[in-house]
Amino acid sequence: MGSPVDPDDFITALILTLLSAPWVLYFFSELIKQLEHSRINLEDAVSQLERLRKHDVILNRELQNNIRQLNYEIEQRRNAQLERESVFEELEREIKEKSEQEIQARRLSTLTRSIIDASPDLIYYRNEEGRFAGCNRVAEEVTGKTEAELLGLTPHQVYDEHLARQVAASDHEVLETNASLTEELWLQFADGRRRYFEMRKVPFFDQDGHRLGLLAFGRDMTERKQAESAIAQASKDKTKFVATISHELRTPLNGIVGLSRMLRDTKLSKEQFDWVSTIYASAITLGNIFNDIVDLDKLDRDKIEIDLKTVNLRDFTNEISSIVSLLAQDKSLKFHSEIIEPIPVAIEADGTRLRQVLWNILFNAIKFTQKGEVKLSIEASDEGAGNAKVTFRITDSGIGIPQDDLDKIFAMYYQVDHPDHKSATGTGIGLAICKQMVDKMGGEIHVHSVIGQGTCFEIVLPVAISQHQARMAELEVSNLNILLVEDIELNVLVAKALLEKLGQRVEVAMTGTAAIEMARKTEYDLILLDIQLPDMSGFDVAKVLHEEELVLQTPIVALTANVIKKREEYLQNGMDDIIAKPIKKSRVIEVFNELFGEEQKHEERRPTSELVSIPKVDKILDVDMLQMLVDTIGEDMVRASLGIFKEKIPEYMELLTVSLAANEKAEVCSQAHKIKGAAGSVGLMRVQQTANKIQEGDHPAWWENVHEWVEELAMAIDKDVEHLMEWVNANKIDD
Asked: Domain boundary at 169, 195, 225, which?
């Protein structure tokens, strides 16, 4: 480049240029073509790229949208995952809690089942079809089947037919009414024991209110039932005791009243007359106090009855006044009675009850009056249609009754608490009995009192005016041939003297056998028959007399100190009437006039009821049989037999007493038959004979006597087994 320029250089360059120029032009033209083509391609490519760019923009937007959607979904899934985790955690907690609850429920179920099984009560439940769906152990013991065996069974497949019908009927009632029900029934255990259950049945439902069946709960009330039977028997024993005391006390009381009454009719000095009158009044007082005790027993048993008879008001008033005046004289009190005319001559009333009411109030009036007077007044008002209202008014000048106590004096055992009353004590039952008797007679009793001035009692009775007035005045018959059957000398003396004084002829029999023999030989106009005789009862005597037709025209009147029995009971046992002891002249006249007066009774004589005496057992052991057993099987076998008897007899006795409490006569007889056989096999004669009485269920007085026989049987077993052991020990024989 820095050397000098040579023309050759130009020529060379020119030639080279001319030579290379076409190629260069061609090259450049081709290059230009290529470039143009490249440009065109490039433009196409740019266009394509632009399209791709636009498409990419669109895709990018879609991608962004997708990314945003994906992010949203991811977030949602993350939230859902968190929720699932939370749900899983909650579910785990619930599962854990439910597991714990199930465990607790199983524990409670086990505990509940244990409690149900441990319960002494009978529990079972049945479904809608009446089939067993579950029970406790007591129910298993009763039925003799396990719970699994009971499932699906009906009562008819478990119990005897009678009990099944009863159970099914009560079940049906519970399901029909959808209400609970309580019933009491005897159930027999599979081992033969009988127990008395109080059953409570209720429908039960699920949580949606759909009924599933019924539940039954049974409580063993056997001891209560036996206690009730014992109480009932105790009431009978109390009644028997009162009847016995009645007879025992009235026997000497009869003599005191009768002899003192007859002694007053003899010639006595004034002092002697006062003494005898005091004895007479005291005996009457004692008799009335005893009447209160007897009536208290009757009120307890609701056995008070009103027996309407014709009562002559004047005679009735005079009779009471004569006795009360004697008591008043002892306290230096004035007593007077007043009849305010007009009054009926006679009324229809229960003279015995009315007399007792008035006597109680009059006796109290004298008892609580220290000085002054006691007054009895009677007045009547005609109510029309043959009826009247009679008012008995008793006033005294005694210490009076406080106003606060007036409403209480008719309460049982109530006594006024007053300083001035301390010297006058009593039972507290008299006024209470008076109130109840007046109520039963349809009347009213009122009391008015002022402290320090006295008291007034008013008894108002509605009565019928009697048309049989003349018959009450005096005895209408005489010279009757009377057979007096009485075993106590004192009673014979009093009754015979009274009857002969009334103009009658009297023969005496001291026993029932003697009375029957005398009735066979002689036809009497009247038989006065004591009920308690040494060899047989008066009812037995009456039965024989009727059966042998010895009294077709002869009335029989019972003489009795037993005021417990109703008059109806005597009439049903062959009596025509009764006279209570101590014998009163007025009552004798009343009965004699009714039986032998002009107007005869229209009532037919009622047949006597059968009474079977209970034979006494004298021997305890069957010695001959025992001796034979010892000789035959030896002493050891006898002792072994006795051991078996002692082992089994408590079970037999328990079944017997429970069956008796259930009034299951057939079962009682069955158990008695077992005891009889067992006793006979070991020579216990008294036990055997007593059990034999119990097993004879066709006895006409079986229910009346069975409780007493069972007591005899228990006593005989307790004592006679010891006697048997003593006999065996005392009669050892070498085999």
From this structure: 225
